[in-house]
Amino acid sequence: MKNLLLSIQHLLAMYAGAIIVPIIVGGALQFSPKEIAYLVSIDIFMCGVATFLQVYKGIGIGLPVVLGCTFTAVTPMIMVGSKHGIDVLYGSLFASGIIIVLIAPFFSHLVKIFPPVVTGSVVTIIGITLMPVAMNNLAGGQGSKDYGDPLNITLGLITLVIILLIHRLSSGFIRSIAILLGLVIGTVIAAFFGLVHTDAVVQSNWFELPRPFRFSGFKFELGSILLFVIVGIVSLIESTGVYSALSEITKTPISRKDISKGYRAEGIAIILGSIFNAFPYTAYSQNVGLVSLSGVKSNKVMYGMVGLLLICGSIPKLGALATIIPSAVLGGAMIAMFGMVMAYGVKMLGAIDFTKQDNLLIIAVSVGIGLGITTVPGAFAKFGEDFAWLTQNGIVLGTFTAIILNLLFNGLNNEQTTDYMK
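-> structure tokens emitted (422 positions)
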């Protein structure tokens, strides 16, 4: 019973992050409420599959790692899906997953060209590009009839305040599910104003297994593939920190080979996710705190959570429950969640030497170009469609700029903070 309760705790800790990504992406790509409900369900199901791949030592790293969909993929998925279609979106995810699997054995060496000055700049760019999504939802959802209604803004801000208060006044497990509680309380408040609609829940099935290519097959486009490879690499670097933390908490030494298996498991998860029209995955840091807090380091708890995820992901009505959350309530939570992505980028930049003017210049130019192209995508439009993958994609162009400038100013003489990468 204790292990089951701990499994439920892990499920609740990652649930908010897992459901928000499909809701945002599905809404932005104009999926129907029933389709978004399926997206949520398949995402929960595939989070279970991905976590199993990571926890099972024969395939993954063998530590109590929870894999969930990454926020860094939100803007790229919306961008590619809107511009090229969902067949290119999922084809690009599939190809990027294969590339991640192929580079997994060598990535601890390749990481030398992705020091904190590069990855911090990239994550900062991604975090900044996510904020317009949060603000549009706060206002009621882009294109909605009540966009900008003061009621929407008020509900969103109330949700944000609730999240902040829970985080400030609580500790341990309750703090770890502050965003989930904020979403629930915000939705209850919104219901009193008639803003909660349960049609999708009523129309959804009680049971449905995932189906391959539910929405689309694959098409491939070079720029989109490169974009998701960058997203995947950023996720691997984020996951490396989680591996290291769990290694220390569980007193389990990890070798370069173990790290490689962890990377490979994430690549396989991305491949499977694309086949079932789901999402790319990364290790969730919020669950690391629960491992430390509970003191239970056995993978039995993770396997129990995998079972719960598979069950929940097979019940579309549970997925549909997530779709009743009003856009304004989601927007309030997104400000906190997406702001944390940006803050994490700033934290990564904190590991560099700011007394070196070169590093300041790398950050300034790469973030400036990345943000500039994101906000003014037509600036380089006359370079033509052949170069659109680079010239009209702020994340890709910002990443290449950071890598090139870092090699120019710093070469490969970057100190890595993780021992097994030296």
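Residues 1-351 form one domain.
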